[in-house]
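Hi P.,

Sorry for the delay on this. The queue was packed all week, but I finally got your sequence through. Input first:
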Amino acid sequence: MDISRKMDYVDQRKGTFDTTTIHEERSTMKKPTYHKFTTEPFQRFDDRNSGFSRFQREQIAKIQDLKYEQKPSVSSTAKIQKGDPSEIGEKKGFGKKDYALSWGGRTVDYLIRANLYTRDLDIDENKIDVSDSSSVTRQVKSAALWYGANLAGICEVNPAWIYSHWGDYNAFYSGGLAKAGESIEIPSWLKYCVVLIVGMDYEDIMRSPAIDASTSKAYAKMAFVATSLATYIRQLGYHAMPSGNDYAINIPLAIDAGLGEMGRNGLLITDKYGPRVRISKVFTNLPLEADEPVDLGVQAFCEECKLCAYKCPSGAIMNGKRTDKAYDESNNMYMKKWPIKAMKCMHWWEKNKSHCSNCIRVCPFNKPPGTIHTMARKVIKTTAMLDKFLIKLDEVSGYGKQVIK
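Then the structure:
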């Protein structure tokens, strides 16, 4: 297939992509909802201060005899972060088969992190015609959905969202690309970001805090989607760099791309999946049209709803009012929000011998498809008057309880 036909190919197959998942009916706005809570200009965040990086340094200090290989070892990392599965009994939801299913799902993720993430590879010499940026944008989003994304949005890159330095965790998985503490330089060509959303299985998340393999599979899926889309854009003659949780902060990029808002739990809340999502992205210089931010009613709702805070086993989520005072260095505080106690969360994971998704599980926005839930979301977008009632109704209806089938 020659370069001139590549974009047409996606258009011809557009019926396959269900483009309604790109342009859902949402309340758009010129500025993201976090703008009204901003207290001072954002500064680039040092990834060494993230909870994952701090926890990794802490665990390495505890295990002095651990020898790192040039490439990350999934088995050794599992023992550091999750506890050795061989030492865990057959507690319901924590059996050897549960661990095997979960870690099997991460295989593609780790391979891509070590070989393809954060790499701008060779581009095709023949560039496509980009005079119609609107058409190009639609086709890139369609390709993203075809590769497996559930939602796709585009924003112009705000340099404040790019990490200032590589963190321990992401550098460890980079396959020798970077070392912790190395500064991150922003390429001159980096202008746009295609933000990719992968939804996780509802029933699997309801198992939390037991093992939910859906999280691992989502990491693999988001890695496949981002790297495939990056290759697609390079074949069109433009730079493209895929990224998972490395290089830049995902949530503000997703908010800028019109894919949702940040909630009390510190996660992205999307219209269709709530917080039950994973985020990857592709940075590119392909001329694209940016989406506008959305107001889903999340800010007002989270002011009233404190279910994630009450149900957090680690006490990492605050149930009080917003603040622009950080708990510690893991919070990038230039706005009034609900800062997360990252190390409390990580230490609970260590105790639990697995990650935890309780804050996703109990969130009222975490609902499977259904007429009633769709109507509730529309009401929340329109008015905050019924928020308290909907929160109470959610509790009374029994949503958010752990279910292991």
